[in-house]
Every structure is written in structure tokens, then in C-alpha cells.
């Protein structure tokens, strides 16, 4: 056993002078700046509520990690499985061209409005090929490396956009999964009512021989609407809603 002594003192001065704001929370730091900018009381409350939500929840990397650890029910007939996360990302500014998810290849299409944009991220252990399409807010990816190839179509359908769903029909082949934010509600798909767009989507899904993939409770945190929808013509698919992230659905 060796014994060591040190001349270091617990009463020594700090290496760097402590900052007055060192112990302040982001909320407390923001308050003086909001007053300097002459934000109204209403706007100050809005900004502070956003900061509270932003700093109290988990990061996107943590979301991915939690999703990857989600349990999968065993199946005697299932040789392989693939986990797909339909996630609505809440962000300030675009980072798609500077930020990368580790161990994933990402395929992104720029937004057509201030809130849009579609991204599909595929694990690098799979071979993913992007199929070029000239359809707004739509990404189509062919995935190999499983027992059978699958085709994933990710879409975002803003409330203000007119969309012809028949444009994606040529890409609906055997082994297709269609998923995204449709901004459409259907009573049979866990929403209180069927709105006009929902009726149109439901009719198109039936005509395209796709099936709605039932999920656990509605995906919205602030209403009973279920607007994040997934469909497929594959029979062995299940879905659940995971309650994490800062987005409202």
C-alpha cells in the first residue's frame, strides 16, 4: 500500500473568477434580455414557457436511444424485425445539413413552408437507397438487408397544402410502409371525428389496398386528434405511441 501527500489546499482560490450568471437558469438569464428587447408581458410568458419545456425534456439523441431500447414482443414466426419511429421534430432553425445522427444514414427533403420538411433515418447496418421523386414533402427509401426488402414512404402534409395522393401510388408496392404527419383525422383511427381530409385519406387508403396500423392512444399531447398515421400492406406490423420529446404530437 502506498501513501501519498499533496500540497493542494481546499481553501485555494478558484482558477477562474466565478461569473455572476454562473448559477442562473436559462429562464433567469433570459428575463433581463427580454426586458431590454421590450417584449410584452404576454410574449415574455410565451418565451419563458418555451424555455421551460425545452430545457426540461430530453434531447433527440436520447429519444433515439430510448426508442432503440423499446421492447419487441417475441414471435415464433418472425425471423427478423425492423423498428420504425415516426417522430415529429420540434426545432429552432435547420440543422439537417450540419448535424448527423450517429449510426444512421439520413435522407432529407427541404420544407415547403416554415414548419415543413421530411427526413428518414435508416440504420447503417441496412442498405438504404433513395428513390428520387418530384413530390413535395415526400421521401421514398428502398431498404435492403432484411429477409424481404421494404419500401418506406415518409410524408408531411401541411394543412395549407393541396396534395394528390395518387402521385405516390406508383411507389406503393409489396412491402410498403407509408407513415407521416397527415393533419387528417378519422374516427376509426383514434380521433374524435372524421374531418374532410380524413375522409379523403381513408378512401384512398382503402383503394390502394393499404391497412391502417393501429397504435396505442392518440399521438397528440394537447388534443384527442391522431394525425400521425402509418399504413402498410404487410401483415406482421404493430405500432405503439411513445410519450417523449418536446413536440405537441
Automatic annotation (TrEMBL):
All copies of domain Endonuclease/exonuclease/phosphatase, residue ranges: 150-249
Gene3D superfamilies found in the cross-reference section: Endonuclease/exonuclease/phosphatase (3.60.10.10)
Domain of life from the UniProt record: Eukaryota
Signal peptide (UniProt feature, chain positions): none
One GO MF term attached to the UniProt entry: catalytic activity
Name this polypeptide is given: Endonuclease/exonuclease/phosphatase domain-containing protein
Organism this protein belongs to: Rotaria magnacalcarata
